[in-house]
Every structure is written in structure tokens, then in C-alpha cells.
From TrEMBL:
Gene3D superfamilies: 2.40.10.480, YVTN repeat-like/Quinoprotein amine dehydrogenase. SUPFAM superfamilies: Quinoprotein alcohol dehydrogenase-like (SSF50998), YWTD domain (SSF63825). Residues 1-20 are annotated as: Disordered. Residues 54-257 form the Pyrrolo-quinoline quinone repeat domain. It holds the Pfam family PQQ_2. InterPro entries: PQQ_b-propeller_rpt (IPR018391), PQQ_rpt_dom (IPR002372), Quinoprotein_ADH-like_sf (IPR011047), WD40/YVTN_repeat-like_dom_sf (IPR015943). Residues 8-18 have a biased composition (Basic and acidic residues). This is Pyrrolo-quinoline quinone. It comes from the Archaea. SMART domains: PQQ.
Length: 432
């Protein structure tokens, strides 16, 4: 791939990013940590909502960052979505995804923070068999939209992991909720979901499965949103249990980032392959075979972008070199031809997008340990032009609405430096 974006030195210019502290959190170390924070917009972008690792959920006015309300979610608050009401009397709802003992999905009133409904996925997934974060029930993705009948729906993917000696097991459920919290249908598998996306008509839901080590042996399923019935499946067809990293609808097509072969795909109805591109496939450098996972995909208006993550070696955990396409964003046209690519420079926990802009909250590059990689970077999907807001800590979550970006900064201490950089804070600013 060739570089066609804008260097950070060109991106940097004075901006009015405002900040408010979020309290305390354990300082991150050299290697990137699991998802511990969430941020999202509601009330047509006038409200910014944060979810914290201690369960605190706070809604603030986007312009002043003054607190409207604060509540305690039953679990670690690691995901946020906005759900429109089915009528004027219902209004909008803020939905928070949890990771914890109960794996709770809860809906809150945007004006007061009052809880409207609650669903505990532990009743379906089972309880954690070990007292560690990786075993807890976890809501990994939320999507909302209007279905073919004009009704507002919420979709969620939840999973739980356990291990007993050599046996590894996933339990997972995909849910469709009515606006009042009633469960419309569920879809259960023994694989690990990682991503959801809803088509523009609200008729199909794409579910990406990252790890398939049981009876469910396909990386992508497409479900009918009215019934939860399976419409079609697709898989990269690779060996091992790694399958899909992310999915994104664009009309009748679906962009898929493949963990199986480290490529990006654009699929048509039924899983027909329009094209595929090499993103961070296995590459030999100085005697090491290196690769990186394509972790994120976003498609809109005939453009598809993929973001890759950390370098790994086939034969060892540590590497002396880096894959040439690690921590890279690359955008392609409808024919699979490269439009532009650029560095994101650090690990991106989650990609935010609004149709035209991609926002990448960049955490540490643990092999280089360069604090200049800590930033929120954004890119125009068509041209690659954008900007950069540096943070002292690491940016781990982001949201974008109406030209405004919100990001969560977490403190970090590299293991070989002993210096804490940054703070736990919400940062909000303009992309203009």
C-alpha cells in the first residue's frame, strides 16, 4: 500500500477541545487493555454520555459539559447506544451495555437518568466460573434502528467464556429488543460474537463471529430482523478458530474484516464475493513471519475503510520487527481499488464514524512505546484528509455526531518508564 494521507505534523493545529475528569481508573500498562470505557451522543448530539469501568454513567450537555445526571449501572459500563422511541410520548432512550456478573443491558431516560428497563444476560449465558474479567458476561455490541414496519428496535450481542483444562467454550446470544425492553427474538450459538451492523432498511442484521471453536463454524451470519431467522452465512474458509473482526453494511453489500486470512472483503447478497484485498497478511521480515489483525471495517456510499492492529509473529509472542501495515487505515472504492491509506500509529479499540468521517481513538503502540502515538485521529472517508488531537494518556473510546467528536482518555504507564501519563477524562471538540 502507498501512503496517501496527512502526516500528524500537518494535522496538528490549535483546536478548542474541552475536557472534564472522569474520576479514577487503574493505569494502563504497555500492552493495550480490554475495553473499559464508553462514550456516545444522544438527544440529536446535544447530550454526550460516558460509561466508566466502575459502572458510573453520566450524561452531560455537549456544549458546556455540565452534568445533567449520573447513575450507577449494575456492571462495568462498556457500551452506549441511543434508541429512538416508538412515539412522541416515549422519547429517546439511552442504552448502556455492561460487562460484569449480570451482563446487564439497561435503558435510561435521557432527561432524568431514570431506568426505563433492564435485561440481565447472565440468565441466558450462565454465570462466570472464574473471578476474572475475561470470564464475565459481556455485551460486546449494540445496534439500533427502525425495522421494516417502522418500529424502533435494539439489537445486542452478548457472550461468556470459560475454560477447563484444554476445553474452551463460548456461550453467546444475539437479542432483538422492542423499544420497551421486551425480547422479540434471540439467536444463540457456541461461538464468540464481536460485531453487529444493521442495514439501512432495518431488514437485515449482520453478526460477525471472532472465535469459532464449537458447532457454530462460520464467521458471518445475516439474520432477518423481523424473525431472527438465518438468511445466509459466509466464512473466510481458513484453518483455526479466528474468523471475523468487524462487519459493515453499505446498501446490499457488507464489508468484512477477516481475522482468518488478514484480508478485507466486500460481499454481496448471499455472501457473493465482490472483491478482497490484502491488509496485513503474513509477511516474512528478517526471518520472522509477521501479521496483524484487521480489527475494524466501515462502509458507506461506495467506500470501504479497514483498520489494522498490532503486529504478531507466527512462531513467537514477541517480535523484533513490525508488520509494514500494522496500525494502518486503508480506504477502497467500490471496485476494491485503493483510494488512500494512512497511519493510525497505535491500537484502535473502536472506530467511530458518521458516514463521511472516521474517528480513531489511538492507544499505545506497545512495541515502540512512543507517547506521540496517543491521539484521536480523524479521516475523511473519501480523501483521507483529517485532523489529530493529541492526548497525554491513551484514547480508548470515541463517538462522532454533527461534526463534534467525543473521546475518553485513560492514564497509561509504560512498564519500563515508571511515569504516569494522562488522566481519566472526557474530551470533546469540533472536527472542523
Amino acid at each position: 500500500m502507498t501512503m496517501a494521507g496527512t502526516a500528524d505534523t500537518e494535522r496538528d493545529r490549535p483546536r478548542e477541545f474541552r475536557s472534564v475528569p472522569l474520576g479514577e481508573i487503574e493505569t494502563a500498562r504497555s500492552r493495550h487493555m480490554w475495553t473499559r470505557s464508553a462514550v456516545g451522543f444522544a438527544d440529536s448530539g446535544d447530550l454526550v454520555v460516558t460509561g466508566e469501568w466502575d459502572g458510573t454513567v453520566t450524561a452531560r450537555e455537549s456544549d458546556s459539559l455540565e452534568t445533567r445526571w449520573t447513575v450507577d449501572h449494575p456492571d462495568h459500563a462498556v457500551g452506549i447506544a441511543s434508541l429512538a422511541g416508538d412515539g412522541a410520548e416515549d422519547g429517546e432512550t439511552i442504552v448502556v451495555a455492561g460487562r460484569g456478573e449480570t451482563g446487564t443491558i439497561a435503558a435510561y431516560d435521557p432527561e432524568t437518568g431514570a431506568q426505563r428497563w433492564r435485561y440481565d444476560t447472565v440468565d441466558d449465558l450462565g454465570e462466570a466460573v472464574k473471578d476474572t474479567v475475561f470470564y464475565l458476561p459481556y455485551i460486546v455490541a449494540l445496534e439500533s434502528g427502525t425495522d421494516a414496519d417502522g418500529d424502533e428496535r435494539l439489537y445486542a450481542a452478548a457472550r461468556r467464556y470459560e475454560r477447563d483444562g484444554e476445553r474452551r467454550q463460548w456461550y453467546s446470544t444475539v437479542y432483538a429488543f422492542d423499544a420497551d425492553g421486551s425480547v422479540r427474538w434471540t439467536y444463540e450459538t457456541d461461538a464468540s460474537p464481536i460485531a453487529l451492523d444493521l442495514d439501512a432498511d432495518g431488514e437485515r442484521l449482520a453478526v460477525g463471529y471472532n472465535r469459532c471453536m464449537g458447532d457454530h463454524d462460520t464467521g458471518l451470519v445475516v439474520l432477518d430482523t423481523a424473525t431472527g431467522d438465518l438468511e445466509w452465512t459466509w466464512d473466510p474458509g481458513t484453518e483455526g478458530d479466528r474468523r471475523v473482526g468487524d462487519v459493515s453494511f453499505d446498501g446490499d453489500s457488507i464489508a468484512v474484516s477477516s481475522h482468518g486470512d488478514k484480508r478485507g472483503y466486500l460481499l454481496g447478497p448471499g455472501g457473493a464475493e465482490h472483491w478482497r484485498v490484502d491488509l496485513a497478511t503474513e509477511t516474512e521480515i528478517d526471518g520472522e513471519t509477521l501479521y496483524a489483525y484487521p480489527n475494524h471495517a466501515y462502509a458507506s456510499d461506495g467506500r470501504v475503510a479497514f483498520v489494522t492492529g498490532n503486529t504478531y509473529a507466527v512462531e513467537s509472542r514477541e517480535t523484533d520487527s513490525r508488520h509494514p501495515n500494522e496500525h494502518r487505515v486503508a480506504a477502497f472504492d467500490a471496485d476494491g481499488d485503493l483510494l488512500w491509506d494512512d497511519e493510525v500509529r497505535g491500537f484502535v479499540h473502536g472506530l467511530a464514524a458518521d458516514g463521511k468521517q472516521l474517528v480513531a481513538p489511538c492507544a499505545q503502540n506497545f512495541r515502540v512505546r512512543d507517547p506521540d502515538t496517543h491521539a484521536v485521529r480523524w479521516f475523511d472517508l473519501e480523501s483521507g484528509d483529517g485532523g489529530c488531537e493529541r492526548v497525554d494518556g491513551i484514547a480508548t473510546a470515541a463517538a462522532v455526531a454533527n461534526g463534534t467528536v467525543a473521546a475518553v482518555e485513560e492514564p497509561v504507564e509504560y512498564h519500563d518508564e515508571g511515569e504516569t501519563r494522562g488522566e481519566y477524562a472526557l474530551r470533546v471538540g469540533s472536527l472542523e
